[in-house]
Amino acid sequence: MTAAGPVGLLIGGDRVTATSENLHEHIYPATGAPNATVALAGGDEIDQAVDAARQAQRAWMALTVDRRRDALIDLADVVHEHLDELAALNVQDYAVPISYAGTARMLEWFLRHFAGYVDKPHGFSSPVNGSFDLNLIEREPYGVVGVIAPWNGSLAVAASCVAPALAAGNAVVFKPSELAPLAALRFGELCLTAGLPPGLVNIVPAGPVGGAALVRHPGIGKIHFTGGGVTARKVLRAAAENLIPVVTELGGKSANIIFADADLDQAATLSAHQGPLMQSGQSCACASRILVQDAIYDEFVERFLAIVSTARVGDPTDPSVRLGPVISSASLERILTIVDRAVDEGGDLLTGGHRIAEGPLAEGFYVAPTVLGNVDNQSALAQDETFGPVVSLMRFTDVDEAVRIANDTQYGLNAFVHTRDLTRAHTVSRRLEAGSVWVNQFSQVSPQGPYGGFKQSGFGRTGGLEGFQEFTRVKNIRIGIS
Ligand code: NAD
């Protein structure tokens, strides 16, 4: 895909290109070639977007609850009609294989789910000491919320944040990464197609400049940030100056514990698709540390490697392809340096560890799926986010050792447990320091399940009642009854 001119921002229902001189050449990672030029928001565009959002939010809240609920259901229907188009744009954004581009469907689910919140009670009344007053505890929208997304999840963040934010009565200024703006911009257009007030959802692709302007803007009531810890600290510092609350959804280094009684074929399959093959390891949800009980270590590794090393690598638009490129040449170099260092430190390179530099993939940023055995949990490979198709294998002997290794990380996003023993599944899950624990399955983010991190993986939740309430603030109204 090659765009004819710069891809514009979406502000107040209009495509805006003229006011921004800040253009970004978007590179398609599968070919290393440009596929679009994108206009980026700076301070002026953020001002315009927040103004448009403020006006639209008033129009939104002037609608009755049934009309707002129906509008979100209409939007879910429109998204449903454009699932294939959104998935294709997701591929163009960061070359995620189409076989993994399921976040458009996730967007539809979240919209349908949170439409159901619009007309449900958002508060309660409570008696008060010493009087017969009417004491109301209500939840109301912040007004305009800023949503900042990482390049690997613009539609997932639209699902988990824009849907509940609108359902709670807010307008949104949504900032996708400059590295992946295309699907988000199309989603913004679909909001208009569905009949939402222009300006209710503004899409402002930007880098650090536009992001910082959004967080510092006095018209923003709350920021929802998804990304890395380094950026999160900058966002939190800026938000402190602005005195506004922030939710942070950050990285992970999730442990995947395979007990000897597990269904080994299932565990090997899930570990491959939740590990190096999952968006080329470029997902916060990846299970990048696989802990295998001694008794089955060799057998598991054999089955796991058979799946990983035969996975189809190639053109992300081909539905049979399981592994695409990584986001950039800089990322590719960084990943290979981490792997080289891990090998120098004694890790056994079982497969991969190199760029795929021959044939039709040579110009893209392809890293072969990479597995290292006997990795030390204190090594950089085991402790830091690699964000590439790389996993570490480690051994453990008993439950206590598995839990100790799993928790021995700064992160706490996901954990995975494979066992047929329900009691063990439950007791181990409770001991794991992670916001979500998945037993005998993939991570399956759903609108009904609150998702988010412990420790350095962030705070706050998306999804479920908790995810809805993140976009509301509490008001107490007391009416004197004499
Ligand atoms: P990043 O931290 O580099 O950027 C995240 C977003 O912040 C981007 O939109 C970026 O443009 C913006 N940004 C950069 N500087 C800013 C500033 N000063 N002020 C405001 N915004 C600014 O992260 P990334 O490389 O885009 O994404 C990868 C990271 O995101 C990984 O750490 C991954 O684990 C994490 N992630 C977490 C989740 C989750 O749900 N927990 C989901 C997806 C990705």
Structural description of this entry:
This protein has 15 helices and 20 strands. The chain is an alpha/beta fold. The protein folds into 2 domains: 9-250 and 457-479, Aldehyde Dehydrogenase, Chain A, domain 1, CATH 3.40.605; 255-446, Aldehyde Dehydrogenase, Chain A, domain 2. Strands 14-15-16-13-12-17-18 form a 7-stranded mixed β-sheet, sandwiched between helices. Strands 9-8-7-10-11-19 form a 6-stranded mixed β-sheet, sandwiched between helices. Helix 8 links the parallel strand 10 (222-226) and strand 11 (246-249). Helix 3 runs antiparallel to helix 6 (182-193). The chain is globular. The chain starts with 8 loop residues before the first strand and ends with a strand. The model has no long low-confidence stretch (mean pLDDT 96). Nicotinamide-adenine-dinucleotide binds at residues 148-153, 175, 177, 207-208, 211-212, 215, 226-228, 231, 234-235, 249-252, 284, 385, 413, 453, 458. Belongs to the aldehyde dehydrogenase family. Keywords: Oxidoreductase. This is Acyl-CoA reductase.
